[in-house]
């Protein structure tokens, strides 16, 4: 997956939430495009949880993207 693909999916998240599963087993839910910040470095993105704060995530930590927006942490 590229950041451009992730950015495109995020743009659709206002009508179709998505979750991003990470290598450490966490999943982050993106229910609006403004919850992701995608710089031009091509290697990382910022996630802004609905509860506040932010997380810097590197693209190589992304395992999968679920367009249903489900977050099922193990």
Could you characterize the architecture of this molecule?
- There is one protein chain.
- The chain is built from 1 helix and 6 strands, in the order H-E-E-E-E-E-E.
- The chain has 74 residues and is α+β, with helices and mostly antiparallel strands.
- The chain has a single domain (3-64), classed as SH3 type barrels.
- The protein has a 3-stranded antiparallel β-sheet, with no helix packed on it.
- Strand 4 (44-47) and strand 5 form a beta hairpin.
- The longest helix has 10 residues, at 3-12.
- It is globular, with a radius of gyration of 11 Å.
- The termini are far apart.
Number of structural units classed as domains: 1
- Tell me the distance between the termini: 23 Å
Strand segment tally? 6
Taking all residues together, what is the mean pLDDT?
85
At the third CATH level, what is the topology name? Answer: SH3 type barrels
Number of helices: 1
Which of globular, elongated, flat, extended, rod-shaped describes the shape?
Answer: globular
What structural category arises from helix and sheet content?
Answer: alpha+beta
**So what's the CATH class?**
Mainly Beta
CATH architecture: Roll
Level of helix content?
A: 10-25%
Succession of helices and strands: HEEEEEE
Low-confidence stretches: none
List the strand order in the largest sheet. 2-1-6
**Major beta sheet summary:** 3 strands, antiparallel
Beta-strand fraction estimate: 25-35%
Gyration radius from CA atoms, angstroms:
11 Å
